[in-house]
Each structure stands twice: as C-alpha cells, then as structure tokens.
Amino acid sequence: FFEELLPDLAEKSRSFFPLSNIYFDTGLLGSVELLTGREAFEVPVEMNKINVNIRLPSFSFTAWVYLKPQFTSGYLVRKRVAQEGRGKELSCWGWFLSNTDGQQFHYGAHDYAAFPEASTVSSTTSSNQIELGQPIKSSLPAKENLFLTIQVQTSNSTRPGDHLGNVSFFVNAQLVGIEKLTRPITDCFNDMEGPLLGDFGIGLSQVRYYNSALRPSQQEEIMSYGEVLSRLVSGVKM
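RE: above sequence
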C-alpha cells in the first residue's frame, strides 16, 4: 500500500504543494543525484554534466553498491585535483572502498598542493591527501546489494588542537565506524570536469549527495522508499 501511495503522493505534490519545486528552486537544498539506474563500471566515468560542491557544516553520500568477485578497491565517487599530471590521482574529496578494509574518506589533496609543508601534518596522510578509514576494518561481501552511506559532520572551529568533526560510515543504515577529521574540509576549484563515478568491478545505483547528515532512520527510509519521506511528501525531487 505505502509503496504505491507515497510515490503517487509525491508526484501530485510537485504540482500542488506550496513546497513543490515548481515554486522553489530545490537546487538550493544542495542535494544532487549522480546516478539513478544501475550501472556496472570497468573504469571511472566522468559525470561532466553534474556539479557537486561540498557545503558545510555537514553532508552525506549514499549509494546502492554491488561488488563483483574480482573487485579489490576503488572509488565510488571522487572529485580530483586536476585532469592531467600529478593531481589526477589525488582527491579534493572522495569516497573510497576496499573489499577487505571497508569504506574510507579521502580529502585535502588540493590543500597539500598549495602548502607542501603540510604533508607531514598527520600520519593519516598518504600521497599528499588525508585518508580516513573505519577504525575496525571489515570486509564487504561480493555479489550482494549493499546500501552504503558516508556522513561528514564538521565543527565551526579552525584552531589547532580543537575538535574538527567526524566522518561516519554505515552499511545498510547500521553504523560500522567513526573517525575524527584531522584537517578542515574544503572544496577545490576544479570546475573543468564533473566528479568521477565508479571503478573496476563496482556496480552502482541511486548515488546521491545530500547537504545534511542523514540519520539512520532517514537512511532506512531511502532503502525502503527510495527517498527521505519528508522530501517525498513535500514534493522535492532531485
């Protein structure tokens, strides 16, 4: 019943609800759908018609993920520093996956490129970018549909030694790890291309960016109904 009612209500609300995107530009909410249907990747694909700008203090990425048996590691989505040269292997921000260690959040390569002396700031720095992973490593099964979420919450402080925020990792709306940010998050200015999506051996669908920290209950709503219910009933459409 609800599976039929809610999508129908959401469709009608886009025409009649005061909060419908007919009346307001929902792009201001900062949510972006990078991929709707299911796609299997052999190489990363540039989403050149999609613009994702990280906006603080919090944001989330969600995706349905299907791993082939030959998958070892790769990015689900990332924004790289440059198209060519040394910067093409580095990430302004990126959601990384390993079949043995789980999820990671990579960021800050553009900051290190601007300030080389910062490359020794933290032991979590690798190849001039910060790589934060699950404190307790966990393998991800192949040939299963998994709903993954990465959630970033930052503080307002930029003073050395202050708590900067956390990155949290979820599998099927269950928290699997939290790691502290070791450096403030900023976005880079590589506007010549869109984000890169997918990698060898990864199947993806419904990849989304949200300009908020999704609660586990909201993640469950996305798993069951395809969207956060408050967005469905208010007529917000990606």
